[in-house]
Every structure is written in structure tokens, then in C-alpha cells.
Amino acid sequence: MNGTDRAPASSPISARHPLFKLVLALGTLSAFLLVPDRTTGAVAAKLAVLGALFFLSGGIGRAGSLLRGGLALFGFLAVFLICALLGDLLSGGNSLPFFFDLAAKSFWTLAVSLLLFETIRYTECVYLSQLLRVPHRLAVQVLLVILIGRKIAREFSRVPAAWKSRGLSARCLRRHPVRTAGLLTVVLLRTVDQGVRLETALLGRGFSGRLYTCFSARWGRADSAALFAFCLIVLLLLNFSSGIEAFLNFR
Questions:
Q1: pTM score > 0.90 for this model?
Q2: Given its phi and psi angles, is residue 5 left (phi above 0), alpha (psi -120 to 50 degrees) or beta?
């Protein structure tokens, strides 16, 4: 299973215990979704936390994947905004507040997921399923989805370079949508082929419905100190969001 890992850039967070990274990711995501974005101070506090996470999780080394994820989210929200505006014009309603709330929550979820969940290696996911005693049937299904999902993402990440090497520019692809659809079909077929080879490899290695790993980790004092420090920082930033709002209004 080591060959399927996407080793994140060396960073203070990626070097910590897998359980620390899981608790940090879930706790940060919960705080971001539970605290409303009604004030500028709350938004500024969340952006400050994301800035700290960007540097502590090695985000500089993964800037490309972060940018691609942001562009994909922007495209989805743009289509959703157009549909919302058309719906308002036809029905006379006002769905923009709902759209902005959805856009904010989508942005926080994507940012935290890309910054923190990607620091958890696949072998660490298997280790966490054993450590948390997740039922093996559920654990195997989730782990296989993660494994195949990463393979699909890796396959699609190679598409732009492959098209560029064959002289296919973005302008050419926009002018020939049928040809573009055919090329994407080839990518999907390659993904299906990889899934079949993965199944064959698992059966050839004696897969019996369980996933194992030799990875092990020990929770240390550094993990406890780092978790306490970051929770304290998050609480301070979110609790003092009203103070940040007053400061920004004064400016």
C-alpha cells in the first residue's frame, strides 16, 4: 500500500501523529461551519487560521492542487449562481443570501480538506481505521473509495500535460467539444482499467476483505502540545472575532 501514498510536503503538521491530524481537521472544519459568517471579524479570523494552516501543512508545496481545487469550486459556484439568478428572475424570489452562505461553507470545507486531510497518507488512513476500531466492512469500503479516488485524481491531473504534449491547446479544445468529450472518455476508460488492475492485484496478494498496514505511530508530548496550542489559537481567534470587527470598522 505504500506505493499509493501521496507523501505531503515536509511540514510541522504532516510530521505529527495521524490521530492528531484527524482531530485537527475535523475540529477546524466543525468550528468553521458552526461559526456563522455574519461579521467581517469572523471571516477575518477564519482567513487567519487558514493562513496559518497553509504554512504549517506545507501548502506552498501543494499550491498547484490547491489552485485546481479552487478553480473547480469557482466553476461550480458560477453555474449555481447563474441558475439562482435565473430562478429569481422567473419566480421573483431572493435566493442570493442562501447562495452566499453555501459559497462560504463550500469554500471553508474545500480549504480545510485540501490543507489538512491531504496530509494524511493512505497507510495512515488504514492505521486510523484499526486504531479507532472501525468495523472492517465499513473500513474496507471507505479505504477502497479513497484509494480509487486518489487514482482518479492522479489520472486527471496528468491530462493537461498529456494534451499539451500532443499539441492540443485550450483554444482547440473549446472549438471542438465533441473531440474533447472523446478524449475525456479515454481518460475514464483508463481509470476503469486501473480499477480492474487494482482488483486483480488485491486478489493476487491474497485479499480476504481486510486491509492491513505495517505503519505504526506513538502519541507523544509534542502532539499533545501542538493540539493544545492550535485549539487555543482557534478559540482565541473565533471568540475575539467581535473585537476584530470593531477594529476593522474603526479603520
A1: no
A2: beta
